[in-house]
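Lab channel / #folding
Pinned by the channel admin:
"Please post every new chain as: sequence first, then the structure tokens as a reply. Keep commentary short and put observations after the output so the thread stays searchable."

First post following the new format, from NK:
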Amino acid sequence: MDASSPTAVIKVVLPKVPFLLQTAASHTLGLSSTSSKWDLKTELIVKFIRSLMTSPEPTPIGKQQRMTLKDPGIKGPIWISKITVSTPEEDDVSRALNDAIEALKEGGETYTPAAIAPVEAEWTGYRAGVDKHRHRLDLSEAQHYDRLMKEVKSDVTILYFHGGALFLMDPASHRPTCMRLAKMTGGRCFSVRYRLAPKHAFPAALLDALVAYLYLLSPPPGSYHDPVPAKHIVFAGDSAGGNLCMALLQFILQMHRSSPPRTPTIRFHGHDVELPLPAGVALNSGWMDLTRCMPSIYANSHYDYLPAPPSEDVIKNFPKDDLWPTDPPRGDLYCETSMLCHPLVSPLAAKDWKGACPLWLAYGTECLTDEGRIVARRAAQQGGSVIWQEYEAMPHCFSLIFEHLPGAVKCFESWVQFMKDVVEGRAIETHGLFITAKTLKETPVDVTKLIADVSDKDVDELMMEARVKRSTGEEGEAKVLPRL
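Reply from TO:
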């Protein structure tokens, strides 16, 4: 749906009017099972999105992707400076990533290395003193960057990776989020247009993420910015963007494990660039498990708009297009099915988080909650500084979508505060909170004991079982699994 087209919006919404009226009546009369946790607006939005995602007539992958890549334009209180990171002459970046992938294999995994390519991104900042209708100034990109920097008040630089199941969306779709982050931190965002599946399979997106980090640390001649110290950089993302954040962190940790005690380096645009850890990593509803095997996938679906795995009829009748299925066939949109349990594909599979920078993870009562719990638990048990927040009855990425909710405001403010704290060098102590819906009552939780009834061994077995089922076709092709 093109949200900028009134006709397109009407075509989608009009058939849903009876359903929405029924939903509103059920909520108002207290007949809805979620009415005690949600307000009416939230209930309508969640159930409307869910109804679109469970349509009996699924939309081809290519059309889904194109619908989310339409640029609505730039206006309002936001600075955008568009840049392209040129391809380095050396192949060191690709080689380093491929070496890490090989080192973290457990046997039998196959993939095709990605070629390094130019990476587009958007510097994003807050533009004060203008209303939401003000158009972008007619300036060069360099001039836009200069104007942006004049309003930057802190050292916070956010390396942002957007969500969208690794095949949807774009920095343009996440400008409002990045603008809010820039405004509230007083800093700036560097939002990356990484390559999307299924055309660009793993590890293309992760390679782009690594190039973006190196670009911040060591800008080539002609770049607008000065080198950014790693202690001023925070990796941040939502959903699939959270996956890239943690995969990139795991890659950096693997580089450090491979070259103790010195800081590893990568040759980038003619310089040996040290690869230190960032100040922190901050995730909203991060997607940690591409096998989608954890209990919350089903147990929390009542509160989420992400649908349960599809029926055999939906799988059999899913429409084909120019993007999917791929040629030759591939079992998952993002990667070969043999790679689903690789820690740089599914960070849930990563067993070693020792030495990680501080982590902040927030989830609702959503399909992905359990995988976030496991990652937070492992990192905390291994001595990492981890902040865990779980919001009762809240759906996937609620703080980005439901800005009117007090819980969403609280979550976003905490997200921002963590970024400011780690960049300003404040100590981060591991702690967890469960926050109730509506009242926002906080109950402390022990991060090292999250989801205690699912052991690390259980996780490994569940992931391997899911991978086998996907590889043998027992769960259908990945193109119809619910997307994030």
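NK: Confidence is low (pLDDT under 50) at residues 476-484.
TO: also worth noting, The CA atoms of residues 192 and 212 lie 7 Å apart.
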